[in-house]
Specification:
A hairpin with a 4-residue loop joins strand 5 and strand 6. Helix 38 packs antiparallel against helix 39 and helix 38 crosses helix 41. By secondary structure, the chain is of the alpha/beta class. It contains 46 helices and 26 strands. It starts with a helix and ends in a 10-residue tail after the last helix. 43% of the residues lie in helices and 13% in strands. Strands 16-13-15-14-18-19-17 form a seven-stranded antiparallel beta sheet, with helices on both faces. The chain has a six-stranded antiparallel beta sheet with strand order 5-6-11-8-9-10.
């Protein structure tokens, strides 16, 4: 590291950094010595020189989504995704993109389509495409959902620029290898030497390369040395793809772009089981599909459990499902092709149900289920845990049904369950299996089963890996698939490239055992007492402590690193730093429960505190994370222990105790507002740990609240709805309480207003859980009045606290009863309209800021559904965290990140919203951010938009 620092290369060896990079999406944990984020090829050369001179291993990494363990290593990890992520050029005429190694696949696809007016696209689209990078796709020879049409990454590589372990800068092409810079004398010499060595290797192994390699479409295991054969023109670029970073470090590449069909139609098919589905593959392939993907019902059930029934729309009847993407130039012809396909499959006699899915929303939900397959299947709705390890086997498509039939028998023999999804049209199966990797007996089953599975797939003429690579998971099994002669050729090929022997050790040649460095092995069995009840039943089934089980939910699929779609993870989108992602935080927590010498030491971890610092506690991950991580809960729990006996940040008192202060300010609000509007206001804000860059909201008087709800205040025995007036509404915008009460009354329901209870949210978000439980317990006691009337909560975050946090924190039947009655205002509106209420006339268009807590707890589409029910035709939704997120955006040390987060969705939405179009911000934090970004614009709560006072003469 001293050599790197002397060379001017920044190195990070902090505990939280090493923890985050000890894992990828595989079963393995290999702590690195340090992490480097190169900014240029010169940085890579400097790192390589330091590692070569010291014999330090070097591992390349992009999105860190490897399921085989080929993105973790014991020395230096080079993360290209943070800085070397530029698209250097797109040449439509040549059908080529010039990109750095850290470019994310979906970013390249999006930019290619934008730059060519939708004519060209980048085809490889693995499920991890929103975070996987070009360098990683080249390393693994990634494929994706549309590989039936477009093949593997190796089919799209034109040239690859690399740095070798001896410092040469080379370019691998379809016709050999050359120095990247013609004036670089050493690299010119090295390129000639390497080229001659590769020719000799091919000449000496002609028979083996021709008979053992390239036998099936998805033969990714081992090195792709058949491309070195004379008849293939010494295609060094394609031979290098799939080498998993063991030969050279990829820094740049020229990639092929392909034509994008203007019309596409998804056909969804339902079958009794995956074997029946596989038996129809040959028929389906006759229709030239662009994609043939499959999932089993366990994944669908888990999606619905996590995100609600409407998270999966348009699925036919069945227990196993195929997605067939048909495309072409003429939409009518594509539709006819779909009808013919359904007719043929019906005649085959195996299809249970099938339908074309033209609706773009339904198609989106269906593809989301498939793309989240790995995370959803890790902890399925049926219970238990499943793991990678044998998640990438491949056979020829015509052999898939027989292979799956035999494979299911093998699972039964070992008492295991396999959750199946994958690229059925290419014969590649992603199967997560219910191994017990925590116990020695379970690991013994894992070793024996995986050996037997390797032998089985080879018997069916298949490959151990179809796109994920061999890595630590399968490299030791390559002797099952290849002859000793081929294994020797693999080793010789690697030595020709990596003369120093430092690149990604443990993969492909001289591999580690498949059960070495397992992440779930060796975690101490201890009791971590928590305030939240964290699924104790599931933890007991897994044989571990509930806190340990909770923080180990993350399996590394990395959806939190995506830059678009959903809300998770706003802090990563603002900083681009792994430590600020849900995954990065999870990994630090996982190392905490593993490495702390005692429980008390774990709760005092500075690495965890630092990793959690920029977590906005938005709860989006609890909805968006396929594995069900709930970082807001983990942060609250950790802080409750970390600050025990310590002085808390002053903002934990100024903001964390806000409901208490509001009781005081309601009596002296004019004086408080006068002080805050004066120069003294900034002094007061700074003293309270608050940013001075925001205008403080005006505090409301108690009289304002009493006047707002006067016609509805008090308990009503036969109330049709209870309106819960939260502390934020009482303290800052009591007029919203009046609007909400009038709206409820306009539906014909008696309204009972609860104005004297607090959900404890501010104490929860700052980790003051003893106080939170007392305050929340009092609220639950008031609300649990024996009725079943819905409790409509004005503030979405308070609704979420009562809905989700109350049962988990209090663990009482009363909390469960109250939780079952809680509705956000938007959810209640949808129910009233569905029940026949006639709302007043609504504007034709609105812009709405999605509220993170409402999104995660009541459903991602709850606001949009409510507005659609109200007849709003044009809804522009700022789907992303507003950036304030309760106390976060008001804290002085978080202001800059808060504004960066707002730039992701809210700020652009406001810029595109005409002044006459209403902006809805049901959350008080969201409303404050709107006011901060555009002081002249007034946002509205949905209740204000519907308030009968604003619609004279409207009916109920």
């Amino acid at each position: 590291m001293a050599k790197l620092e002397a060379a001017g290369v920044a190195v990070d060896s902090s505990g939280h950094r090493r923890a985050a990079y000890s894992y990828d999406a595989s079963n393995y944990r290999v702590p690195p010595l340090a992490v480097v984020f190169p900014r240029s090829v010169d940085d890579v050369v400097a790192v390589m020189a330091a590692c070569r001179e010291t014999g330090t291993p070097l591992t390349s990494r992009g999105g860190g989504t490897s399921m085989a363990g080929n993105a973790v290593g014991p020395g230096i990890v080079l993360d290209f995704s943070r800085h070397m992520n530029k698209i250097l050029g797109i040449d439509e005429a040549a059908g080529m993109a010039d990109v750095e190694a850290g470019v994310v696949l979906s970013t390249l696809t999006r930019e290619a389509e934008r730059s060519t007016d939708g004519n060209l696209t980048f085809a490889p689209d693995p499920s991890s495409k929103t975070r996987a990078t070009i360098g990683g796709a080249i390393g693994n020879d990634a494929c994706g959902n549309h590989s039936v049409r477009y093949g593997r990454t190796s089919d799209h590589v034109l040239e690859i620029d690399v740095v070798t372990s001896d410092g040469a800068k080379l370019t691998a092409s379809h016709h050999g290898v050359r120095a990247t810079e013609p004036t670089d004398a050493y690299s010119v010499s090295r390129a000639f030497e390497l080229g001659e060595g590769l020719k000799e290797l091919a000449t000496n192994n002609l028979a083996a390369f021709r008979t053992e390699l390239g036998r099936i479409q998805r033969q990714v295991s081992g090195y792709h040395l058949s491309h070195l054969l004379p008849e293939n023109g010494l295609n060094v670029a394609r031979a290098l793809v799939g080498s998993e970073g063991t030969c050279a470090v990829v820094v740049r590449a020229r990639m092929k772009l392909v034509r994008k069909a203007p019309s596409a139609l998804l056909v969804c098919l339902g079958y009794a089981d995956v074997v029946d589905a596989a038996r129809d593959i040959e028929t389906i392939l006759q229709f030239s599909p662009a994609a043939v993907e499959g999932i089993d019902e366990a994944i669908v059930d888990t999606m619905r459990l996590r995100r609600g029934d409407d998270s999966v729309l348009g699925l036919p009847k069945g227990k196993a499902f195929l997605y067939v993407d048909l495309d072409g130039d003429d939409p009518d012809e594509v539709a006819r092709n779909a009808a013919s396909l359904l007719k043929r499959l019906t005649a085959n006699g195996r299809l249970v149900d099938g339908r074309a899915v033209p609706d773009i929303v339904e198609r989106g939900t269906l593809w989301r289920v498939r793309e989240d397959g790995a995370g959803l299947s890790s902890r399925p709705a049926s219970g238990g845990e499943s793991s990678a390890g044998w998640e990438d086997s491949a056979v020829a498509p015509q052999n898939l049904a027989a292979y799956l039939s035999d494979f299911r028998r093998l699972l039964d023999e070992y008492g295991l369950t396999g959750i199946m999804y994958g690229h059925f049209g290419a014969g590649c199966m992603h199967i997560r299996i219910t191994y017990d990797l925590r116990s020695e007996s379970g690991r013994s089953v894992y070793r024996k089963f995986t050996q037997a599975a390797a032998e089985l797939v080879v018997q069916h003429g298949g490959s151990l890996s179809g796109e994920h690579g061999d890595g630590r998971a399968r490299s030791a099994l390559l002797p099952v698939m290849y002859s000793p002669e081929m294994l020797d050729a693999f080793a010789a090929y690697r030595r020709l490239w990596d003369q120093a022997g430092i690149l990604n050790p443990g993969s492909i040649t001289d591999p580690d055992p498949i059960d070495a460095n397992l992440a779930l092995e060796g975690v101490p069995e201890r009791e971590w007492r928590t305030h939240f009840e964290l699924r104790p039943v599931q933890a007991a089934e897994a044989g571990t402590d509930p806190w340990v089980h909770a923080v180990q939910a993350c399996i590394g699929v990395g959806r939190c690193r995506s830059d678009a779609g959903g809300v998770m993870c706003p802090s990563f989108r603002a900083t681009g730093d792994e430590k600020d992602s849900t995954r990065g935080r999870s990994r630090v927590l996982q190392d905490m429960v593993r490495g702390a010498r005692t429980v008390d030491e774990g709760w005092e971890s500075e690495d965890v505190r630092e990793a959690l610092d920029l977590c906005l506690a938005c709860k989006a991950c609890s909805n968006d994370c396929p594995a069900g991580v709930d970082m807001a809960t983990y942060k609250s729990e950790f802080f409750s222990h970390y600050y025990e006996g310590k002085l808390r940040p002053v903002s934990h008192f100024s903001l964390g105790w806000l409901p208490r202060w509001l009781k005081l300010t309601s009596r002296i609000s004019p004086l408080v507002n006068l002080v805050l509007a004066s120069p003294l206001g900034k002094v007061v804000a700074a003293a309270g740990g608050l940013t001075t860059k925001r205008t403080m909201p005006k505090f409301a008087s108690g009289k304002m609240l009493r006047d707002a709800v006067a016609p509805f205040d008090g308990k009503r025995a036969n109330a049709g709805a209870v309106l819960f007036v939260d502390s934020f509404t009482k303290g800052f915008r009591p007029e919203v309480a009046g609007s909400a009460a009038r709206v409820i009354a306009s539906t014909g329901r008696e309204v009972s207003c609860e104005t004297d209870a607090c959900c404890g949210l501010t104490w929860i978000s700052t980790g003051q859980l003893d106080a939170a439980k007392k305050i929340m317990g009092k609220a639950v006691a008031k609300l649990d009045d024996g009725s079943d009337a819905p409790i409509v909560v004005i503030e979405p975050s308070c609704a979420a606290a009562l809905k989700k946090d109350a049962p988990e924190l209090l663990g009482t039947e009363a909390a469960e009863r109250v939780s079952g009655r809680i509705q956000s205002f938007a959810e209640a509106v949808k129910g009233w309209v569905d029940g026949g209420w006639k709302p007043p006339a609504m504007p034709s268009a609105v812009t709405v800021q999605t509220h993170c807590h409402e999104y995660s707890t009541f459903g991602a589409a709850v606001q949009r559904k409510a507005l659609a029910a109200l007849g709003v035709a044009d809804v522009s939704e700022a789907t992303g965290c507003c950036g304030v997120a309760g106390n976060f955006g008001f804290e002085a040390n978080h202001y800059d990140i808060s504004v960066k987060v707002a730039q992701q969705a809210l700020a652009p939405a406001l810029e595109n919203t005409p002044s006459a179009v209403p902006v809805l911000a049901d959350g008080f934090s969201c409303a404050m951010q709107v006011k901060h970004l555009e002081p002249e614009r007034k946002s509205l709560h949905l209740a204000e938009l519907l308030d009968p006072l604003n619609h004279p003469g409207s009916g109920g």
